[in-house]
Amino acid sequence: MRNLRNLRFGRWCRPDVTSVCWNPETNQVFCTIGPTEENSSIQLLRISDEDAFSPTTIAVWDAPSPNPDLPVDRIVSLQHLSGPGITCIVLEGGDIITVQETLSSAGDGDGVVEIVGSLDADITAAKWSPDEELLLVTTKSNVALFMSATFDPVAEVSLTAEDLKASKHVSVGWGKKETQFQGRGAKALRDPTIPEKVDEGLPSIFEDGAATISWRGDGAFVALNSVQDGSRRVVRVFSRKGELESASEPVDGLEGALSWRPSGNLIAGIQRLSERVDVVFFERNGLRHGQFTLRSPGRSLAPEQRIRLDWNSDSTVLAVTLEDCVQLWTSGNYHWYLKREIPIPHGICSLSWHPEKALRFAAASTSGVTFVEEIFHTARGSCLPPHDNGAVAVIDGDTVRLTPFRMANVPPPMSLFDVLAGSLVVDIAFGRHNAHFTVLHHRGVDVYEWPVVKGRSGKPKLVGSFPLADSGLIPLRIWCLSEYQYQFVCARGDSSFAHFTVTMDSNSLSPVDIGKPLVSTSAYEDVETLESYGQDTTGRLYKFSNGTSEDLFIQFPTHCPWFEVSRADEQLVAFGLSRSGHMYANSRLLSKNCTSFVVTPSHLIFTTSNHFIKFVHLVSAVAELEVPEDDPELDERCRSVERGSRLAVAIPTNMSVVLQMPRGNVETIFPRAMVVAGIRKLIDEKNYSRAFSYCRTQRVDMNILDEDVTETMYKDTKRSRHQTGLAPDSTTAAVPSASPPSPSKVNVVCDAILLGLQSRKASNLQNIITAHVCKSPPALDDGLLLVAELMQEDEKVAEKAVEHICFLVDVNRLYENALGLYNLDLALLVAQQSQRDPREYLPFIQSLHDLPELRRKFAIDDHLARRPKALSHLEALDAFDEFCAYTTRHALHQDALRIYRYDQARLRAITSLYAAHLETKCSYREAGLAYESLGNHAKATACYRAAGATCWQECLFTAQQQQSPPLSADAMADLAANLADGLREAKDYVAAATIHLEHLSSVETAIKCLCKGYHFAEAMRLAVQRSRHDLLDSAVDVGLAEALGSTTEFLADCKAQLLAQVPRIADLRRKAIEDPLAFYEGERPGGLDVPDDVSVAASSRMSTSASLFTRYTGKTGASAGTAGTGVSRATSKNRKREEKKRARGRKGTVYEEEYLVNSVRRLVERVAATKPEVQRLVFALVRRGMAERARAAEALMTDVVDACRTAVNDVFSSAPLHDAPAAGGGQQQQQQQQQGWRATGGDAVLQDFMEDQLKRQDPPPAIASFEQLTLLG
């Protein structure tokens, strides 16, 4: 649906121009003058289209014809080779010439001219490959010669009739007319694979014998179109090595034109028939693949004129060169559009597309060189509601295909309206409110009125026609200047431009002078006015005012061929798209990969090469424009679209966007950003009905009706009385302007509706029930009570109410709620609405009827599993034995305790049951407490003992209380000994020493326990206090020696671990910086499976009660395999294997550094925790006269602490050097996480590891310096 709009047009006039080519590096054109019959010399010129087409002469030399049969030599190929910087010229006479331009010869024509080779036979065609590595030359002796870039022969191929047998063409005729059913008779019996007429390859009556060469875009194959033996024209396809790949099937009337589409799928040629001229297409295997008929409205094609074909570099435009014009054709949805026809007088001899700028070309004629640059442009109407009818106009020759997508989604090439112009259409412009549009064609301007009939766009009517007085003018483009004025520009033959203004009020066409020439135009429209803006080649913007252009002092960083202007809070913002895909807002860069865009009153909408469509909310400050990230899952302003989609038009009134796919079909989508904005606008207009309708059709959460309306909707309940699906969470959390949701907003809305409907209860019964049901949580009881009231008033109305509430809520749930109301008639009425068999519920309801009231309530609550309420009914029945049994069966002890809290006798009975229950659940501490409260000290002692060492004090207390039978002295001693052993295992040495001292009377064992816990001061005090001085030598000194030995061994291991691990961490980080790819690609070659397990600190992974096997298998007691898990079993297995590798931190893996850092962290923390013990050890050694040992322990501890502090600075003070760029970069990792993408299997473990590396900001472990005793010096 895109048209071609002219961006640049110019002519350099000079007679006898014979060929032209581009230099893509400098965007300059090389052309040749001559040779002619009057002058055999050739002049090579360089022309720049940037500086008023100033030519520079490179070289001039004489080129007489070497063949007497050739009156004048002819240039067959002109190519500038960017690599060596030379220009190659191939002459028909057989000479191959190179021209080297030197700095000293610039402009004086003294370039170095060299004949690098000559062929004996005349050359018919020559063409360089796209990579400039091969030159293919064909001669009149039917020889194809492949030459390298140094003009050395690569292959020489003879063109013989045997080549025609290279391809055996078989057509099964699928989709053709002859394969379709034609009724009974002889035709139906004919072989459908054989067409009625088979082409024999008859030559065209205007056959000129010319040969044509065309390379595929990648240079892998080349096509040669030549005449074989004067009887048949054939297209041969060769490889780069000169091997024949295929020959085309016979085609009658095939001519010499040939062009291979750079994308490689089609080879275009010309077939001239008696009544028409077709462009036919071939595949690489030589088979036909479609065609279209050339047309030139307003004139007929001369039968004898030669036609040439040239594809542009991106395969989007096919240039058909006629005798005096160039036609530009594009295709879409299997239809070929004639987009432009550019007149070039005096015979076109050469056309060259720019190799890099796809829509720029230069055409040489006998009178000069014409420079043309086009852009793809969508002619769309206004996007201002309510006049945004989605108008899009498509040019096809002299026809304008017009479709208002708001009214009809007609796929191209069809359209809702076809407007026929007086000649070939050049450009289209829409007026204010889409009420008018103008068609610029070769003969003038036509103005059409586009009426709106009953809210729909009617058929356009011609209201004015303004012909051009000067036939030499070439129309280029037109734009809307104001509400009743249009302006267009035409090119003159002398490269100047003429501007004209069409005024609808006065029905006049007048020339104007706008001053500075502008190459791009755009219009801005709001509810009050329409303004027109232009842009020059530097990117500066101007405003059209009173026939002139005013400078806006807004400039894009580069020229943007596509731009639109918007106003937000009276601030002008210009959005521009450059050729490279850069999207700008004034001078700010918004996106680097934009492919198309459109501006609505609320949004900037654009598509990207990453196949997203994005929405930017318009604000007055350019710096505050927020472009969403590529995150369609989490941000409603970004949405995925089909690959290559482009914006055709946006329709804010319909909240839709029309996209066109690369193949040409269109698709209408309703992006959430536009839908939400449109719904809010409808709510502001109090159009709740339409807002609600859009919420339902577009599946928008009904919460938006509450979040945006707030109190206005509550006050206007008559207008907003709708059935909604409100929820307590916000649906606009992604929108910055959304306010925090109220936790009880659902109930507030429902209560407001109920209040508004109370006066009309009879006519709004269903709405009232719906309001009750929509509450959070649903007020089902209130709705059922309303039905129960109706049962007393009108049974028919009650039945309808029950049907409605059963439609809204699961009937089984309603049945249970009705039972919970103890209303058996209501429950029966609800049950009758279900799909249940009456035998399922009638006996149960009948049995309930026969029970007393309290027993009935108990049965109902027990049936509904409302155990606490059922228990309260048993208490009311005074059935204590049944009460106790029911409590035990359903574990309702806490509820039972609450019921009988003031009845001591029954409270003790319930407490005894609860204690037994706790004991069975292994809650021994609480069970012991319950037994102790009952005075059952024997049971309490057993429970406290089973609870472990933490309850040793409670256990010894109850053991010494009066029991039956009483506890013996030996049993008491065994109990105390077992508790002391448990405390020693738990490393609670002080508590163990207390038991040995006070309950076992073992002073020596108590002192040893204290020494084991480094409590030497208390041990020495206890020995003297109990008059056991001998224990100072036999117990305290021995304990000091054992503590010194274990401490020395621990500190030595820590020091060795630091010396091994800290340098290894530094080495790993250095390797990650030097070669991150090799560091993260996996295991290193030669790495040994040697885990770094020298750490003496306890591992946090090993300290949990769950086993490593459970962690790696992912199995728990409640998990079970299913058939569905088999699909991901391999992925799960890889993840488990990778988790094991990460946990081991094996040397050479990416997880080694993480393991080493965690190991150092644990070591530092363990050393810091050991400092108080070492201080107590050193102090005790000095007190016992072991100063040298104390000095050694203190020195070793000081060294280890200093080493730990150094390690903390080296390992933790600075972030790992590879966090930023490693493995694709931290920014990419964070972006992947924000996009919601998660790896699977082993890759997921690596991703978790990288995210941990990026996110981890744990503070480094803290360790203070070791305070030494001053007494030791």
How would you describe the overall organization of this protein?
With 1273 residues, the protein is of the alpha+beta class. The chain is built from 32 helices and 57 strands. A four-stranded antiparallel beta sheet has the order 1-28-27-26, with no helix packed on it. It has a four-stranded antiparallel beta sheet with strand order 2-3-4-5, with no helix packed on it. A four-stranded antiparallel beta sheet has the order 6-7-8-9, with no helix packed on it. The longest helix has 45 residues, at 1030-1074. The N and C termini lie far apart (93 Å). Mean pLDDT is 85; it is low at 718-741, 1082-1127 and 1215-1237.
Compact overview of the structure:
By secondary structure, the protein is α+β, with helices and mostly antiparallel strands. Among the domains are: 1-118 and 331-377, no CATH class; 378-512, 7 Propeller (Methylamine Dehydrogenase, Chain H), CATH 2.130.10; 1039-1101 and 1131-1255, no CATH class. The longest helix is centred in the last third of the chain and has 45 residues, at 1030-1074.
What distinguishing features does this structure have?
1273 residues; alpha+beta; 57 strands; four-stranded antiparallel sheet; Methylamine Dehydrogenase, Chain H
